Amino acid sequence: MRLIIQGLLATCLYTSYRYYTGTATTALDHTTGSLTTSTALSDGRVPISRRTVAVADLHGDLPHAINVLSMASLVSPTQSSSASHPYTWIGGHDQLVSTGDIVDRGDDTIALYRLFQSLRNQSALVGGEVKQCLGNHEVMNALGDWRYVTRGDVDSFGGPQARRKAMSVDGWIGQDWLKGYNVTQTVSLLPANHPRLPSGYTPPKVSFVHGGITPEYAERGVDYINKIGHGFLLKALSALNSNHTTEEEALWSSDGPLWYRGYATDSNNMACQNAEKASKTLGVRHLVMGHTPHMDGFVTRCDNKVLLIDTGISRAYGGEQSALVIDFDLVPTKGERDGRKRWVEKETLTALYRGRRAKVLASTETELWL
């Protein structure tokens, strides 16, 4: 009952956000946009839109996770008592990205990983997506580093041996990490293969990672990062901790994408120089990351190129319960020039906080002739 009430309160707060920003008429209207028919202009063009929601560092706290996902209108309590999942995906074709560190510091490891498994499956059935990044704490647990594991967490598995088995190469969590998680996720703000996209238009992309991608790792590429990360994780889950390559050890270092904090701690000049290089190489508009907590809310740097979204959601920290929302629209408008038609690309970055009014971080409109 407590979680249901929290979810309803969070949804009410999100409704206020949608009214405030004017990006939709109702909080739960996910029936239009990228995967369905919208009102067309006389030339047949239609608006195309999608929401991308990101959360960071849930750290073993199911109630607070439900708060932020409900606040973002992605989940609601399942009404049917016979359903196999306690929470229902209501996000339609929205996409949800977790920047990692679901585990440690709290007791709800099993419930959180089961929740994300369920939401990943449910969202796929209706055109949505759930994408997940590995955090340093996922890999620490795979390596057997349990310094931040709570007694309640261990007991929920039935003891240390059962927990280790679940986080092994053959265990259900280990298999989930190997099959459903990457070190970094590059997300398109609209489906790149959408049939109504104008010819020659490529939707902008956003990079998500737990720690940060330096220019050097950006040069090596996303595929390289994820390949090395997958190999490192596989060895950790297989208890082959003394058999790591130089590349794997570098990935696990303080300059690797799971641990790097430079975008949070470097001077503005250095952070922005690196962000410019990394984002250009990766071909992305924003670099979104967790890992370094800022208890009062999101930190944006370098004209919103860097978005730091770890706000200490878990009760272990006592920070803000938060979600980043990227509303993206490609809207056809009247007008033609040199055989090209006028479109307006709209992007709004919003910070949702439980118990506080949503904060619009940035809102841009760009005229395009396509």
From TrEMBL:
GO MF annotation list: hydrolase activity
Pfam families documented for this protein: Metallophos
Calcineurin-like phosphoesterase domain: residues covered: 51-294
UniProt-listed Gene3D superfamilies: 3.60.21.10
Protein name per its UniProtKB record: Calcineurin-like phosphoesterase domain-containing protein
